[in-house]
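Example record for the data management plan.
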Amino acid sequence: MPTIATAFADVTASDSALRRFLHGLPGVDAVGLEARAAGLGTRSIKTTAKAYAIDLAISMIDLTTLEGADTPGKVRALAAKAVRPDPTDRSTPSTAAVCVYPDMAAIAAEALKGSGVKVASVATAFPAGRAALDVKLADTRDAVAAGADEIDMVIDRGAFLSGRYLKVFEEIRAVKEASGPARLKVIFETGELSTYDNIRRASWLGMIAGADFIKTSTGKVAVNATPANTLLMLEAVRDFREQTGVQVGVKPAGGIRTSKDAIKFLVVVNETVGEDWLDNHWFRFGASSLLNDLLLQRQKLATGRYSGPDYVTVD
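Corresponding structural encoding:
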C-alpha cells in the first residue's frame, strides 16, 4: 500500500501544484456548516448516556498548563490530578495526557511514569510559531528527549495566509521527523485563518504532511475551538481516511469549559465520524478548567447533589 508521501507526491512536488490541490477542494457552505453544528448541539442526552459521555470526556482531556508562571510543583500537582482526577472515587478515569511547555516535559514524565497518562509538549515556538526552523526542530527534539510522548506544534500562519503552502508542508514534515516516536498534533490556530475554506485547506495540508492529529487552536487567541470548526475538521479526517485508509485524530482546544460543551462536541464526533473516533487515541480536548466541571457533574449523577467548587482542586 502506498504511503501518504508517495500518494501525494505529485501534489507536493511544487508550490503551484499544492496550491492547485488545496484550492481545488470543495468550498465550504458556511451557513450549512454552522446550522448543522448548532443542530447537533441541541441533542438531548439522557442520564445513562450522560454518565458515559462524562467519563469518556474525562478520558479524552489533555490536562493543560501553558503559563509563564508554571513551576515544577504545579506540573507535579497537575500530573497527580490527571492520574486520579477524583481521589474520593477510584472509578473516575484518568485523563489522556498532561500538556506542558518543553522545559517542563521531564518533570511531567517523571510524575506520570507508569501511569499510562501521556506527556504532551507544545513545541515550535508555541504559540506564535515565530522562530527559525532549526530552533523549532531543536525545541521538538528537546521535548522528545525529555520524555514527551506527543508533540503539539503550531503552523506558520503567516506563510499559510500568504499562500506559501509548500513552506508550511515542509515544516510539518521536518517536525514530524524530529518528533521520532512521538505522535504529532498540528495546530492551525483556526481563529486566525479567517475562513472555513482555509480551515479545510489547513486540515488537508496537515494530514498529507503526516500529522497524527489536527488541532484547532492554541487557546491563546480570542476565537478557539467551536463546534463548527471542529465539525469541519472531522469531515476532513473522515474524507481523508476514505481516500487514503489513514486515520487522523482531532483535538479541539480552548474555550471548552463545561460538561455541556464537551458533550456537544462528542455528539458532533459521533454523528460525523462515528465510533471509530470516540476514543482518546483519536479525539482529545485541550483544556484546563473543563475537568473540574466534569467531576462536579459526575458527582451530581452519583449522589443526586451538586457539589460546590471546594470539592475539586483549583489548578
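Summary line stored alongside the record: The mean pLDDT is 95.
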